[in-house]
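Section 5.1 Outputs to date
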Amino acid sequence: MKEKIDDSPFSVTGRDPDNGGQKQDTDLAIREKYESGDYDNYNLDKEGEGQFWAAVPNPDEKDAAKAQSCTELPFWVENGEVPDVENAISPQILSKLAYARIRVPDTRVEMNPAGRQTVNLPTWVWLDEGRYRKLSVRASVDLGGGREIWARTTVVPEALRLDPGTDSARLHPGSGECGVEDDGSIGTRYVKGSGKKAPPCGVTYLQATRGGGSYTLRSTLTWSASWEGSGGAGAEDLPNGEFGGRQDVTVQEIQAIN
């Protein structure tokens, strides 16, 4: 703390350092606070017994005024304690920070037939089980004295929604939403000999694409989110995430002579 204030006192405010002509007076007031005001020589005689807590602007907050809205200067907290001040870091806040750092894979379905589709022949759709699985991120803050606050946020694939890209198609199931099976899979991998069966997850195109064009098959995977942390399970819900993918599909007709 002493090194930081010696370098730039105003930097500990958590706000933009440009405050015009009053900056010099503010710097002097801040330095006095920690040298001889509220603290005696930066609490150096208490080193190891606690730590200073300070405001940290959220770099992802687009509203500059909101990002720099905390005016609380750094204050001393004994080891193992959580300060009772507005916006002090908490398991709830940590759960949201962890949620923001979860990276799910792009949504891309597997299909059979894998290439060109055929009118009135079901297209089986599924997701690779090994790629779309439960993901977790843990965030924590060391409070000192062997204590920490923490939160672990977990997201799990919940359902796959299909949009065939044309009204001339039939979805399987009819809602176009494929749920998660007991083994964690979504959709069923095609097995030889199942070509004319209705797939548990898929689409049957009823009209061929024309002129070298294609339909855009859109697949949207919903991930449900939950969290737990120091103090127990999370009481505040996190929003589900929806991540979509697009694949061009060409559909052909098979000519037959009777």
